[in-house]
Amino acid sequence: MHPVQEKENLLASLPDASSEEITRTLLKMKSARIEYIVSQGQASPVGYWYDQTEDEWVLLLQGSAILGYADGREIQLAAGDSLMIPAHVKHRVVQTDKMEKTVWLAIFGSVEDI
Description:
This protein is mostly beta strands. The chain has strands spanning 22-28, 32-39, 55-62, 64-69, 74-78, 82-85, 91-96, 102-109. The chain is globular and about 45 Å long.
């Protein structure tokens, strides 16, 4: 049995992400993990594509971002927007807000049919 965790507010006291993106694993389970990411002006390197073996569901809690796909599509995300990225769909972060911290919640795992 795991101990009960104390309450935590993910938007209070955001870390400084002006020089590099901050990523923290909040929870790791047998079939999934949840990550908290704080960005401020970061983007994926030009020509770099994430090609993950897991499905990824992201929720933008604060800020804004643009995600790009290898097929040329780009999707703008604002606070409250969520997006499912299936495994092996090549994607990259084109841009995150430079003035406001962008806070992501990402869940990685294998999506099953309902």
